[in-house]
Design a protein that fits this description.
mainly alpha, 0% strand, elongated, transmembrane helix
């Protein structure tokens, strides 16, 4: 699982997380669902970035 996380494209992960959070908070009827979904996607993408840094970065970067 950690090997998969180290290969994830962060921009694609942000886009997917944002869409899922938008749908989640919209259907839950949350006030300010747009800003909350954006903040949640940013935080989770940040966590993915920290995991990538902690485990040595992306494999494509290691080849250089």
């Amino acid at each position: 699982m950690l090997r998969w996380i180290s290969r994830v494209n962060l921009i694609a992960a942000f886009a997917v997380l944002l869409v899922f959070h938008l749908l989640l908070y919209y259907f839950l009827g949350t006030d300010n669902w747009l800003s909350i979904a954006l903040l949640a996607a940013i935080v989770e993408t940040g966590v993915l970035a920290i995991i990538q840094i902690a485990f040595g970065g992306r494999e494509e970067d290691k080849a250089r």
